[in-house]
Amino acid sequence: MNRILVTGGAGFIGVNYVHHMIEHSDSAITILDKMTYAANRLSLEGLPGNRVKLVVGDIADAALVDELVAMHGVVVHFAAESHNDNSLHDPGVFVRTNVVGTFELLEAVRRHNVRFHHISTDEVYGDLALDDPQRFTETTPYNPSSPYSSTKASSDLLVRAWVRSFGINATLSNCSNNYGPFQHVEKFIPRQITNVLIGETPKLYGDGTNVRDWIHVRDHSSAVQRIVEKGQAGRTYLIGADGECNNVEVLKMILRLMGEPENAFEHVLDRPGHDLRYAIDSTALRTELGWVPEYTDIERGLAQTIDWYRSNQAWWEPSKANTERRYAQQLRNAS
Ligand code: NAD
Ligand code: TDX
Description:
Blueprint: E1 3-7, H1 12-24, E2 28-33, E3 52-56, H2 62-70, E4 74-77, H3 84-89, H4 92-112, E5 115-121, H5 147-166, E6 170-175, E7 178-179, H6 188-198, E8 203-205, E9 211-213, E10 215-216, H7 217-230, E11 236-239, E12 244-246, H8 247-257, E13 266-268, H9 283-289, H10 298-311, H11 313-334
Parallel strand pairs: 1-2, 1-4, 2-3, 4-5, 5-6, 6-11, 7-10, 8-13
Antiparallel strand pairs: 9-12
Helix pairs in contact: 1-7, 2-4, 4-5, 6-8, 6-10
The chain binds nicotinamide-adenine-dinucleotide and thymidine-5'-diphospho-beta-D-xylose.
The site of thymidine-5'-diphospho-beta-D-xylose has 16 residues, from helix 6 and strand 8.
């Protein structure tokens, strides 16, 4: 049985990956998670105690990371500060977790010769014009815009350098925008779904023409499993499911699916430096590793996600008021 150390396994994508691996492998999993505001213990309910263990700790804690890495065959590294808006208001913690934390993990996998997979984002490539026929590929130059994406880009470069200089056995993946169950209510889709559920008006940044390339989080999990099992050491794989959609379209779809008028939202102050468009070309992952996304009907995926938030109010309600307070404070700071 494989022993996998999953960093950030109590957050959105990490916990979906843990559930996926429990269903689709016989691995034993240790989650290393600092349990920041973004983590939720309820997401771990139903996981088998004999196969999943939670260690509460910081990936920037070198001694703890060294001890844990030594006990595992694979590290799958999801832990990060992940929200662009927060990075504009408090960038320091993004540098500590995303850069220093990744550095400590790299040093530990180097010492103990452990397989490493680094989870990253398409945002490292910057943004595209709406009419640009090109999409991001493994060779697109890095050009991050925000404190968040620049710290993710930094962590990617550290991984690449540790592969080249020290020969660590690592792969990287850069994925597009995820949606699905267990996503924190600060993010666009759950924020708007839960706004409707509590009778608050959904909030659209700027004119809403910004395009994101949506992928269901379950497809991200299956892609990561494939890369960890079959990926070539040193390679970067781009993960995407051809889900380009602009924010107004997504918001109108949510409102329609929830039985609200399509125009029942308000435009609010735009995010500073707001990236216009992301688009992933995942041909290499599909042709070389044979990965195929399953949840490509976004309307269906959104309907299921809405059902999940309706049925799991106890999961998100405790963080909703705080999140909206944080947004209100950020708005006051900006004006
Ligand atoms: P999230 O914010 O929901 O979860 C992050 C998790 O990391 C939380 O459980 C948090 O407690 C933990 N964490 C934070 N700092 C830590 C530290 N110092 N030590 C240990 N644990 C710590 O984020 P997410 O959306 O699940 O993103 C997971 C990963 O996927 C990140 O690396 C992110 O950059 C990447 N990614 C996200 C998306 C997306 O659409 N959300 C897309 C592509 C890539
Ligand atoms: O209230 C909102 N209104 C709005 O219009 C929020 C929270 C967001 N938006 C817009 C901004 C973006 O164009 O929606 C889009 C998506 O926003 P986020 O959910 O904040 O995601 P994004 O900034 O695109 O980054 C996400 O995808 C890439 C994740 O948060 C990152 O972790 C990942 O790397």
